[in-house]
Amino acid sequence: MKRLNIAILLALLSVAGARAELVVRDETGAELRLPAPARRIVSLAPHVTEMLFAAGAGGYVVGTTDYSDYPPAAKSIPRIGGYSRIDLEAVAALKPDVVVGWESGNAAAAVAKLRGLGIKVYLTQPNRIEDIAGSVERIGRLAGTEKEAAAAAANFRERLGQLVARYSARPKLRVFYQIWKQPLMTVNGKQIISDAMRVCGGENVFADLPTLAPTVTAEAVIAANPDVIVASGMGEARPEWLDDWRRWPSLAAVGRDDLYFIPPELIQRHTPRILDGTEKLCQHLESARAKSGRK
Fold first, then answer.
1. Residues β-bridged to residue 261
2. Mind listing the pLDDT tens digit for each residue in 153-179?
3. Are residues 175 and 240 in the same domain?
4. What dihedral do alpha carbons 100, 102, 107, 109 form, nearest 10°?
5. Does 208 lie in the same domain as 131?
6. Does any domain span residue 287?
7. Is position 15 within any domain?
8. What is the pLDDT of residues 14-48, one digit of tens each?
9. Torsion of CA 253, 258, 261, 267, to 10 degrees
C-alpha cells in the first residue's frame, strides 16, 4: 500500500510538473517552452524594455540595450550594447530565462547566435497600433504577469478606440513624415507610423514605397505636395531642418505653416506610448484642417 501511495504521488508530481511548463508562441510564430514564467529577462531594444514594464515585467529585466530610458527605472538596468550591436557574451553572462527581441530591428545573425548558445529568444513585431495590446498580453503570459498586462492592454484598446472614433473619419489630409534629413528618410504604408496617420484621418504620401523606411528626394516630396509635414529627429527638441522646407513656399504644408514636430519616443517606439504621439499627430492634423477650411 505504501509503495502504491508513493507511485501515485510521483505520478501526480509528474503531471503537475508537465502542467507547469509554459508554452508560448512569439510574434513570428516560433514556439518557446519554459519550465516556468521567465524571471530573468534580457531586452534587445528600448521599446521592448518599455513593453516589458507595461506588461508588469519590468522588475524581471536584468539586461537591456542603450537608450532604454523609459520608464525611469529602466535607466538603472545593466546594458548589453545597442539593439544593432548586441554584446552576446554580456547577454550570456546574465543567464537569462528568455531574451525578448525585435524581429525587424535586431540582426538575424545575432538572434541565431543567441539561440545557438541555447538561450531562449522571444521576438516581438507589432506592425499595427492595435497589435501593441496583444503584444503586451503575450509578454505578460511569458513573464507570469497576466493580470497587469491585461489591465494595460484593456486601457490601450479603450484609448485607441476613442481616438479612432474621434478622428479617423475626419477630412483626409496628405502627410509627409520625415525621420531624418541626410539621408532624407520617411516611412511606407506598412510602417506603424502610417497606421497612426490613418487613425488621425491622414494619408501617407509615400505609402506605396516598398521598404519600411525608404530614402526619398526633396524633388519627390515637392512633387507629392503634402498638406502636412511632420518630423521627429533624435530627441525632444524640434529639429532645425524641419524648417528647411520653407525654401519651397509653393508646398501646401509650407504655405499654411503646417510643419509639425512629434518627439520620436512617442511615435517611433512600438509601445503603449505611441498613443501619446498619435494624439499629438491628430491634434496637428486638426490644426491643419482648420487652416485649410476642411472642417
1. 231
2. 999 999 999 999 999 999 999 999 999
3. yes
4. 50
5. no
6. yes
7. no
8. 444 444 689 999 999 999 999 999 999 999 999 99
9. -70
pLDDT recorded at residue 233: 79
Do 30 and 148 sit in the same domain of this protein? yes
When pLDDT is averaged across residues 193-214 and rounded to a whole number, the result is: 96
- Our count of domains for the chain comes to 2
Distance separating alpha carbons of residues 139 and 39, to the nearest angstrom: 12
**Amino acid type, 224:** A
Spatial distance between the Cα atoms of 228 and 278, rounded to a whole number of angstroms: 15
User: Cβ distance 129 to 278 under 8 Å?
Assistant: yes
**What's the domain range around 117?**
21-152
User: Can you tell me the distance from the alpha carbon of 203 to that of 294, in angstroms, rounded to the nearest whole number?
Assistant: 15
- State the pLDDT confidence band at 5, using cuts at 50, 70 and 90: low
User: Residue 8: pLDDT above 90?
Assistant: no
Kindly state the cell numbers that stand for 27. 510574434
CATH number of the CATH domain containing 142: 3.40.50.1980
Confirm if 53 and 73 have CB atoms less than 8 A apart: yes
Question: Would residue 159 count as lying in a domain?
Answer: no
